[in-house]
Structures are given as structure tokens and as C-alpha cells.
Amino acid sequence: xxxxxxxxxxxxxxxxxxxxxxxxxxxxxxxxxxxxxxxxxxxxxxxxxxxxxxxxxxxxxxxxxxxxxxxxxxxxxxxxxxxxxxxxxxxxxxxxxxxxxxxxxxxxxxxxxxxxxxxxxxxxxxxxxxxxxxxxxxxxxxxxxxxxxxxxxxxxxxxxxxxxxxxxxxxxxxxxxxxxxxxxxxxxxxxxxxxxxxxxxxxxxxxxxxxxxxxxxxxxxxxxxxxxxxxxxxxxxxxxxxxxxxxxxxxxxxxxxxxxx
Length: 261
Known about the structure:
The protein has a domain at 14-151: Metallo-dependent phosphatases (Purple Acid Phosphatase, chain A, domain 2), CATH 3.60.21. It is built from 9 helices and 9 strands. The protein has helices spanning 53-67, 91-97, 122-126, 128-133, 163-166, 181-198, 222-227, 229-235, 240-250; strands at 14-16, 25-27, 39-42, 71-74, 109-111, 137-139, 143-147, 150-155, 203-208. It has a 5-stranded mixed β-sheet, covered by helices on one side.
């Protein structure tokens, strides 16, 4: 297994769409001489400061300063309980801008959607209007962050989960730009496989809202076990059996330079 390598990224982000790639690519080149990278990852956070969100944000600011972080990864469920109502929803500022005020957190937030985000106006979180309000906000459904020694592959896992389509209960999901489900999933998997195959980075980190394997009350996400895990084994892992055991034990970890957040 390759030795862990850390790198630092520039705050300036350049969007590049390769001619043979469908997933948007964000170039975030290293800036420090030692090519180090430090980051924080967070999810299930948007609660207008309640449910300990403000306390966690304070600690993130402290740790972020100590670690001299380069960016933050948000794995979804950004705004509870039903996402945003639109680009003018004050929840964006009340749950994000006004909460994560520490100087160390004034870095890019690479963000994907969770199932609660799809219960509102999902497209509003992707809108450039929000970035005009807060320039840290970088949100897309699926994309890649290229950071030289580390590539981050953000995958929209929500459409994979069949119960959101067939058993939504009292929730309404915003599937604009997603339906038909089968076509969307096929394209995501194809584009992810292509991006993984092209990647030359030492570390390949796949980010999604849903765990593939989990010992929590939610359990495994069977749709991801069946459809996403085989691609990770094919392009990321040197030993598929070892990979599945590692993911099963940790609920989201990986081996041989290919962790799964």
C-alpha cells in the first residue's frame, strides 16, 4: 500500500471539462512546497445552528486553523429537513454563511447533495446565484476535483436508492435533470469509470452521501453494493476481496490508496 501523502490546494478553482469526459473537473493545484493537503469533511449539518451545529462549527474552525486546511468536503444533507425552497431561501445564509464564520473555514466547500436536499428545490443548490451570495459554495451533482497526488470523485448516490422513487412516503423528491432513473445512473457509472481509469493520482477518493457498507441502522445500501462497488473494485482496488472486507468493517473506508467517504 502506498505511503500516505498529503497535499495543499490553492483556493483558486478552475473548471475544466475535458473533451472525452462528462464529469466536470475542478483543478485545485498544490500551493505549498511540501505539496501537503489537509481538509475537513462534514455532512448532515444544515440546521440553522441548532442540534449542536454551531458547536461543531466552532470546533471545525479551531481544528481548521491548527491543520491549516485547504478546503472542506460536504457529503450532503446540507439543509434540513427538506432542502432549500429556492435560491432566495434564507436557510442558505442561516445554516451556512452565518454559521461557518471562522477564518480557517473561508475556503472552498466542495459539496454534493443528500436525500434531504432532493426533498426541496435541488437545482437551487447548484445555482451560481448561491455562489454569488457566498463564494465558498461549490455544489454539483457529480464531479471531480483534481489535486495532483489526490483526485476526489464526487458521486450523486441519491438516485440509486430505489425507495426514494417507489416509497417516498410523505416526501416529494426533485428529480428534475435525473429522470429517467436508469439512464441517469448508467451515465453516472460510465462517467465515473472513465474518470477513474484516466486518473494518475496516487490517492483516489470517492465521495458520496450514502455508505456502501454500514453497521448503522440504515445498513448497507444494496443498490450501491450491486452497481457502484464493482466499479471501485475494477479501477481502485488491487484486491477486490480485501476491498469489500475493508468497506464492510468501516462503513466507508478503503484500502490501497482508494478510500471511500
